[in-house]
Amino acid sequence: MANPIVHWEIAGPDHEGLRTFYEELFGWKSEAVDENYALVQPEEGPGGGIMRTSGGMPPYITVYVQVDDLKRALERVRELGGEPRVPPTKIGDSMEFALFADPAGNMVGLLAGTRT
Which superkingdom (predicted)? Predict the structure, then answer.
């Protein structure tokens, strides 16, 4: 697959409750990054995160697809009828992410760079 799914997120206001739910449901192990985010690495498949939403942000589930060029990918999203929602944003020193809505309104993430 040229652009694989490399990460996912499940988010809601009760971060600890979500962590406990998914750990007990699927046997996932999670590691807290901070009080709002925990990384999950299932035995198989891509890893993900469980995140606390804040403010008016609704609960959500999204996947992140690996791309080489975030700006070009977002241009293509617009050409195909989607809508960029979050511009390229740095994550640490070596990665960036962006978010877009597909034509049905589903939120999808893009990741570029090297995971450390």
Answer: Bacteria
